[in-house]
Amino acid sequence: MLISIEYLLRNIPNDYSYKRKYLDENAEKIEVLFLGNSHIYYGIDPVFMRKKSFNAAHYSQTLEFDYRIFHKYQKKLKHLKYVVIGLDDYTFYSKMKTSTECWREKYYNIYYSINSSFLLKNNFELAGGKFQDNIKRIICHFLKNKKYIMCSQLGWLKNTQTSLPNNIRESTIKASERHKILTKDFLKENLNYLKIILGAANENNFTVILLSTPVTKDYFEYLENKNIEKNRIILNDIIKNNKTIYYNYTTDSAFDYDDFFDSDHLNEKGAKKFSLKVNQLLH
To answer: Model pTM greater than 0.85?
Structure first.
């Protein structure tokens, strides 16, 4: 019975299995590959790119899994021109398995066949979440035809809401606290993942773009930006010695509250505006 339930759960399409299938079938055509966490996931809609693009970002995706996805499809990405990687204040210092989002690691093991962990809970759908919730998912999908793929055909996650200033301030506190928890000292390990991608860029003639997405001024002011100067030194060294560029839109004045659905994520309107800016960069 448990094997049957596990089998059914794994056969409910989701964003992870969708993106893996898309990359399996279309990697050779991709010219621009977007990687990163939810800031890229919500912030970049490839439909506005003139080059053939795909958004392979996911919630709380760290540099480790940016690297692992890139590495899995590296040989197939024959027409690659750019790899765009989201960069936040805490990117160099966080690791998924030590964060509050560690439960997401199983999705890479199960749906991408990326064996990053041999822990039981990271290799079975049934090992995480409540049993009754898993049964409900099976019933909703197979009997009620509920869909669990939330992203667009090109991997972008849409949100149409616009958050009011009061809601922005509330979400700012929650997000900044969550990101402080994420901040651990995994600098050497994360830089190694990035350097491997940069090495591939130098060898295969594509460019790596590091990209910081817009956030509200509330989020930027509230967040403990203790890594800014340290990141500046690291980035200067990376740019000087590699084929890469860094663009920072964190405090871009072109974005206001109407462009966000919470303190640090763009809504549909903001994503279009930002995607058009990025499209210009690529040309």
So the answer is: yes
